[in-house]
Amino acid sequence: KGETMIRKVTNKNGQTMYEARVKRCGRVLSQRFDNRKKADLWINKVRYKRDTGFPLNGPVSIKAMFEKYLGYAENRGRAGSTLKQHKENFRNHILPFYGNEDMKSVTIEEHERLFMELKKKGLRAASNNRVRSLMCVIYSTAIKKRFFGGVFKENPFTYIEKLPENRRKIVFFDSASMNLFLEANRDSYYYPLWLFLLNTGLRIGEACALDRVQIDFATSIVSIDRTWSDHENVVVHRTKSKKVRHVGLNNEALHALSLVHTADGHVFRNPDGTPVLPDHVRKKLLPEACKRAGVPEITPHGFRHTYASHYMMSGGNIWDLSKVLGHSTVQLTENYYAHFSREHVLKRARAITRQENVVVADFDGGGVV
After folding, report:
1. Does the pLDDT value for residue 357 go beyond 70?
2. Given a cut of 90, is residue 44 above it in pLDDT?
3. How far apart are CA 198 and CA 195, in angstroms?
4. Disulfide engineering: 78 pairs with which of 73, 119, 138, 194, CB 3.0-4.6 Å?
5. Over the stretch 11-23, which tens digit does the pLDDT of each residue have?
């Protein structure tokens, strides 16, 4: 096993040929080709069959492709919540459409029909795009890892455009609502958690997983290197972006930490000593706190929106905010929060100016408003 060879030989007509030999199942298979490239391809196919037992010319189902992707994604440490969403989209939308069809013979027109069917079922554009993204990554993984003998050479979903999305308006507290909320919950056991979230912009999973070892009181910096995983029901030592980020603590955030009585371990705990869990915050603690204050109910992520929105309205810049929030790209931060910055909007307005009857692009913002 593992023995391969290509050698030059001459046939009975005096023509130079390339003989490829592969040891398989205790015997040597050989075949002759008129060029070296064909011999290499044949060896690769035979070796793949030998090592995986996969019938190279057999059908490839969408289920087999998804299982290969899933194994690869889990090994790479993909977030459990993301994989859970992928499994739901596959089970509800992708598998019923393709069934046992051989994916090697599916045309791009048939792939496009998937999204037409989903649209008829009333799926929103954003949900439709998530299905498209999943199909795109399934094909990309098969191509990159040469699954199924490298039969997939091109990703058809790169040619299928995303549907235009109407981004939902973000919900956050204005200054008056934020003050009402904090004042009404000042005597609450969970007041330190609300104050900390509003002053750091952490995700609720990151706050619930917060440990004293992450906080450097000498520099007033907290290192975000872990989060609570609802999918795995444990604290996982990774963030959504898989990068550690460092968030500065202002006086209000430090005051919130000073109100917490735990000396070590989990920072935010319930009265019985158990850690506060994100799902409990979403379904019980926060709705009750909003009702107590008489303000519109928001989600824990609404606290993150509140922090980011007020950060920009107070003169912050997109680049710094992106780093604080731990977004994968600055573009993502800009999509949500750029319109809260008066200076950002005005700078774009100053990008095009007129000088001596000539329109000039001035991206340094030197034009006159």
Report:
1. no
2. no
3. 5
4. 73
5. 888 888 888 888 7
In tens, the pLDDT along 78-110 reads 777 788 899 999 999 999 999 999 998 899 999
| Structure tokens, 170 | 């973000």
Q: How far apart are CA 107 and CA 113, in angstroms?
A: 10
Are residues 131 and 94 in contact, defined by beta-carbon separation less than 8 angstroms?
Answer: yes
Mean pLDDT of 30-45: 85
Q: Residue 196: name the closest of 148, 145, 252 by CA.
A: 252
User: Of 283, 282, 265, whose CA–CA distance to 274 is shortest?
Assistant: 265
Distance spanning both ends of the chain, measured CA to CA: 75
Q: How far apart are CA 27 and CA 47, in angstroms?
A: 13
Please report, to the nearest 10 degrees, the dihedral formed by the alpha carbons of residues 128, 132, 137, 140 taken in order. Answer: 180
Hey, what's the torsion of the CAs at 141, 146, 151, 154, to 10 degrees?
50
CA distance 348 to 367: 10
* Residue that is written with structure tokens 């909007």 in the block: 345
pTM equals 0.66
Please list, in sequence order, all residues whose beta carbon lies within 8 angstroms of the beta carbon of residue 354, skipping any fewer than 6 positions away. 360
Q: For residue 291, count other CB atoms closer than 10 A to its CB.
A: 11
Four-point Cα dihedral 21, 23, 28, 33, nearest 10: -20
Which pLDDT belongs to residue 45?
Answer: 76
